[in-house]
């Protein structure tokens, strides 16, 4: 049995967050249809495939992994929930308010109830696209995160009681459970109304993709992988073979029915890559994902995630739009012009993410993530740990 590794900051996983954000950004850009040439727009969307879904699955697995990895001795559930609250809600409320302003400015409209459910992160429990596809639509994943955070202390107690030699059985069982979810949705839910492009119904898609109850399986899978590494029963899979395995799984996912592409085929390979990268950092070997530039972008990834689709969707409409069948459609450009618009959207998203990260996220964590007494004690004691520091690579996955 291997020696339990130390718990350094997992820089490579932070950098990997940036890589995972790129397909999310590009997939949303592809859905905007910025090219006048329909073949170019469809080609762009086809190239992106389901890479955005793979990235979202990675973020859920990563969330479970790094939060389990970063648990501190003597930490309490109340302290954990406080840190999570002030990590999530200041950024979320700011981006929610910005989305509301943009909706009112552009005039696309949003219902009162969907807006309220988005504010309180309840929208993913509602099987209606009107609740998840309006306003700041990407915040649906935070609705999964907050449920996971609420249950995390109890889930951690469960995971800690699993004998190390049995952890892999739990990993396999959890991966199988995630793979069964689409089959259940297809079997029990109606086939209509149908989602565009996917060949499945709105309720089936919601069941397999949005419903927090099932997306938490990926978070739990990340928790199990963290315990596997920390208890020394890791299988020593190097990073490069783990990457190859994930690429093969992604290819295989394109060969199966649509709902199985979302995470059923790729969740386990994603978890294996996450653990392999973490072990490389823990053992001091590092990876190309941990370079300074990627880590900088990775630290902005939460803010970038919350803002990028607002920039793409409403920025597109603000650049010019027409009304087609009662719906506002953004203008289009030739290929060079469309590429320039997408590149500009990325730059604007990064700049706004930097402002949100440094103007809201970090100050909120510094001021409120710990009780005043703890902040005062740390300051009086000359602690080198800033009040907004995130222990041992603890990050929020979008």
From TrEMBL:
Domain named Acyltransferase: residues: 11-356
Gene Ontology CC annotations of this record: membrane
GO biological process terms on file: polysaccharide biosynthetic process
Pfam families: Acyl_transf_3
Keyword Transferase part of the UniProt annotation: yes
Keywords: Acyltransferase, Membrane, Transferase, Transmembrane, Transmembrane helix
Gene Ontology molecular function: acyltransferase activity, transferring groups other than amino-acyl groups
Matching InterPro entries: Acyl_transf_3_dom (IPR002656), Acyltransferase_3 (IPR050879)
Biased composition (Basic residues): 366-375
Keyword Hydrolase belongs to the record: no
Spans annotated as Disordered: 366-398
Transmembrane segments: 12-31, 51-72, 93-120, 140-160, 167-186, 206-226, 233-252, 258-281, 293-315, 335-356
Protein name per its UniProtKB record: Acyltransferase
Lineage: Bacteria, Bacillati, Actinomycetota, Actinomycetes, Kitasatosporales
């Amino acid at each position: 049995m291997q020696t339990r590794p130390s718990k350094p900051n997992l820089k490579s996983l932070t950098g990997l967050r940036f890589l995972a954000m790129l397909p999310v950004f590009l997939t949303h850009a592809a859905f905007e249809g910025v090219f006048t040439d329909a073949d170019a727009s469809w080609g762009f969307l086809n190239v992106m495939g389901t890479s955005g879904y793979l990235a979202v699955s990675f973020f859920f697995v990563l969330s479970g992994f790094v939060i389990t990895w970063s648990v501190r001795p003597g930490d309490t559930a109340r302290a954990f929930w406080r840190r999570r609250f002030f990590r999530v809600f200041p950024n979320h409320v700011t981006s929610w308010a910005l989305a509301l302003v943009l909706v009112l400015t552009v005039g696309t409209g949003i219902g009162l109830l969907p807006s309220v459910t988005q504010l309180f992160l309840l929208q993913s429990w509602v099987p209606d696209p009107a609740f998840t596809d309006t306003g700041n639509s990407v915040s649906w994943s935070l609705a999964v995160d907050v449920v996971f955070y609420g249950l995390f202390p109890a889930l951690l107690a469960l995971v800690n009681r699993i004998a190390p030699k049995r952890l892999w059985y739990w990993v396999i069982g959890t991966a199988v459970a995630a793979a069964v979810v689409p089959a259940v949705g297809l079997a029990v839910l109606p086939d209509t109304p149908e989602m565009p492009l996917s060949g499945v119904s709105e309720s089936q898609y919601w069941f397999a993709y949005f419903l927090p109850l099932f997306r938490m399986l990926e978070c739990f899978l990340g928790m199990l992988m963290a315990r596997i590494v920390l208890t020394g029963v890791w299988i020593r899979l190097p990073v490069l073979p783990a990457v190859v395995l994930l690429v093969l799984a992604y290819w295989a996912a394109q060969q199966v029915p649509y709902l199985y592409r979302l995470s059923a085929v790729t969740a386990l390979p994603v978890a294996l890559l996450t653990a392999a990268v973490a072990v490389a950092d823990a053992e001091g070997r590092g990876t190309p994902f941990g370079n300074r530039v990627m880590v900088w972008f990775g630290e902005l990834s939460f803010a970038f995630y919350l803002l990028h689709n607002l920039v793409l969707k409403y920025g597109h409409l603000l650049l010019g739009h027409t009304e087609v069948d009662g719906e506002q459609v953004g203008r289009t450009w030739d290929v060079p012009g469309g590429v320039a618009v997408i590149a500009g959207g990325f730059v604007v998203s990064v700049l706004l993410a930097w402002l949100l990260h440094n103007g809201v996220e970090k100050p909120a964590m510094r001021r409120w993530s710990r009780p005043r007494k703890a902040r005062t004690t740390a300051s009086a004691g000359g602690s080198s740990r800033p009040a907004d520091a995130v222990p041992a690579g603890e990050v929020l996955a979008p």
